[in-house]
Amino acid sequence: MAAQINPSILSADFARLADEAKAVEGADWLHVDVMDNHFVPNLTLGVPVVESLARATDTPLDCHLMIEAPDRWAPQYVEAGAGSVTFHVEAAAAPVRLAREIRAKGARASMALKPATPIEPYEDLLPELDMLLIMTVEPGFGGQAFLDIMLPKIRRTRELISKHGLELWLQVDGGVSASTIERCADAGADVFVAGSAVYGAKDPAEAVRALRTQAEVTTAKASWACDH
């Protein structure tokens, strides 16, 4: 599949979210970071803002829930208009049940792993998911430096996806930029969350196009894509 670029509104101007969404209309998804100041030490936005944003843009919303009790709250984000909802496995009480509920409500189900969480214990859960998110920084704040030590984990995850013959998207989030996206794509990622690399650019839409081109050129030469 082609590389997908999901600009993160965590790096956008929260006072102008509708305009900021329009500024990246060529993006595949709009990444919405939901933080509750409990699971992560930061507070961002919730269901009402997602509802408003869904009405303000035709770009589908990719909601990343960095919150406690996602089993309780995640379905509400589907109802608010999210096309994809990501919960953290570290916070979920029943990840399989939650993934099935998200899918049943009509959204793509995604599971996120913090940097220190290994993928291997969750191999059997992969068929229940539409996307897996490997965090390449500690969740909670934008603008952090990319953690290169996550690249082997991305490769191992891609190998597990291939092993089971799954059509599972592999997303990376944290420090993704023109200087790091090629390493991520070569390791096996195909969905890229970019915050400051997009919204910090003079032309956010052009930044999206440039990042997508970088990722696609790298993917075309990557061993995992050639084997797929």
Quickly describe the structure:
The protein is α/β, with parallel strands linked by helices and 228 residues long.
Radius of gyration using CA atoms only: 16 Å
**Helix segment count?**
9
User: What is the helix fraction of residues, given as a range?
Assistant: 25-40%
For this structure, what is the CATH class? Alpha Beta
CATH architecture: Alpha-Beta Barrel
Determine the structural class based on helices, strands and strand pairing: alpha/beta
Can you describe what's shown?
The chain has 228 residues and is an alpha/beta fold. It has one domain: Alpha-Beta Barrel (TIM Barrel). It has nine helices and eight strands. It has an eight-stranded parallel sheet. Helix 6 runs parallel beside helix 8. It comes from Streptomyces violarus.
